[in-house]
Amino acid sequence: MNNIVSKLNAAGQQELAARLESLSGEARELLERDVLSQDWEELKALYAEKSAATLADNVSADLKPMPFKIAADDLRYDFWKETGEILLQKGQVAAFLVAGGQGSRLGFDGPKGMFDIGLPSHKSLFQLQAERLQNLAAQVGHPIPWCIMTSPLNHEATVNFFTEHKFFGMDRDNIRFFEQGTICALDPNGKAVVDENNRLALVPDGNGGCFRALAQSGTLAWLVEKGVQYVFLYSVDNALCRICDPAFIGALASEGRSMSASKVVHKAGPNEKVGIFALQNGKPGVVEYSDLPENYRDMTNADGSLTFDGGNIAIHLFKLAGLRKLQTSRLPWHTARKTVCGIEKCFKFEQFLFDAFPLLGSMLPFGVVREEEFSPVKNADGNDSPKTARNMIGRLHKEWLKKAHVEVKEDKLYEISPTISYAGEGLSRRLFVREFGRGILEFEEN
Ligand code: UTP
User: What is the distance in A from the centroid of ligand 1 to the CA of 87?
Assistant: First the structure.
């Protein structure tokens, strides 16, 4: 106990130390547990660094675009796909879902993966993902391990949801849930924020906390034991994510030198609010929309296309060796000034997973078509909302049916269950007739 108090005092947290000493019994135990979960020296250093920072330009002058090509147009695409399927069949690939976010923009009371985007089947995002994974696993003939990162704020609800739905038919032993870390919010004077229940204001440490959490939870060791070599990392809210896309895996495996690969889309326009892939001081990374200077944002090539055009859709693939390196690497901390427990302008810190790329060196950009693979559910209405996601799924699945020579109604959209088709394969008129009203549902664009 004295040890804790002296540590807090040394880190400039005298008020917190005094509060701890004033408590007894369970209240004291709980606050003590919160205090022990934090690195107070690091928080002190972070506050010193961030409170002194002005609105410095985060982007270095040496910024170059990272060229990419749409992978499906490459002659090697089928080869990559076959290679990826072999690796999946050998059990060398796992899926890693980062689902620790609070989903505040969507405003849904619960883990975002439980959200029903309003498809006719009313499947949740978690169910769509589980079914896609199972379809692919069945095609390659090997189960695909699934790591799911939650946060202390949504862990229980997530695990309960999966339990209630019997893990959507998956083998429980092949899914591993674990919590990401938290970091204490600091008030404008650098003091730890304590809530009305005498608990620290701990907030999830950002999706960049995933590398530390993967290792500290024992999940990285679990993957090593299973012989996994490639980890497909994705966000919970992309309704069109092709989880463990074989071609993507095969492309990284064939390329040899890179530790990671990322899916990239052409930006919809200069003002689309996505981060872009670029080379900063020769190293690959992502520049956030708000950090990209305006002249770079609008810069065009001779043919009129955007120069900084590679949109980040948060779909990445890591070699296991890369993840092992990242477990001990220090990612930078980003700061937001928010109201916490009624105190204005508190410091909230978080790490971003895309800051891993400069640490890993060379990275393989893998261009994909937005309409086929990217439909994020971020907001309740408008752009990137449940409505845009279900319409995009409906249009894409209608295209799949058309390619399979199924006569579809021009004024309708279609939902094809991921249990029937992973990415448009295996469809036919006969199958359509058999599955219509069951695995294939019709709906209207709205
Ligand atoms: P976002 O940056 O969109 O954040 O997360 P969010 O929390 O889901 O939504 P808002 O900003 O509060 O509206 C992108 C991905 O990173 C995960 C999210 O769950 C999502 O899959 N994430 C985010 C974490 O796993 N942990 C975090 O601390 C933050």
Answer: 29
pLDDT tens per residue, range 185-243: 999 999 999 999 999 999 999 999 999 999 999 999 999 999 999 999 999 999 999 99
CATH number at 221 reads 3.90.550.10
The pLDDT tens digits for 378-404 are 999 999 999 999 999 999 999 999 999
Contact 323, 232 (CB under 8 A): no
Q: How would DSSP label each residue in 41-57?
A: HHHHHHHHHHHH--S--
CA of 53 to the centre of ligand 1 (A): 25
Report the pLDDT value the prediction gives residue 303, as an integer from 0 to 100: 93
Q: What is the Cα 129 distance to its own chain's centre?
A: 13
**Minimal-distance CA residue to ligand 1 atom 7:** 101
Distance, CA of 272 to CA of 275 (rounded, Å): 9
Residue 220 domain-assigned (yes or no) = yes
Domain finish residue from 349, 367, 384: 384
pLDDT score of 401: 98
| Residue 430: domain span | 393-446
Indicate which atom in ligand 1 lies nearest the CA of residue 97: 21
The whole-number pLDDT of residue 256 equals: 85
* Integer Cα distance of 174 and 223 in angstroms: 10
pLDDT value, residue 62: 86
Residue 225 lies in a domain: yes
Helix, strand, or coil here: 8?
helix
For 195, phi then psi, to 5°, come to -85, -175
- Indicate the SS3 state at residue 16: helix
Confidence of residue 59 (pLDDT cuts 50, 70, 90): low
191-224 burial, b if ≥16 CB within 10 A, otherwise e? bbbbeeeeebbbbbbbbbbbbbbbbebebbebbe
The pLDDT of 137-165, averaged and rounded, is 98
Q: How far is CA 375 from CA 67, 152, 265, 365, in A?
A: 23, 27, 12, 19
Pocket test for ligand 1, best of 115, 151, 236, 288 (most atoms within 8 A of CB): 236
pTM to 2 decimal places? 0.96
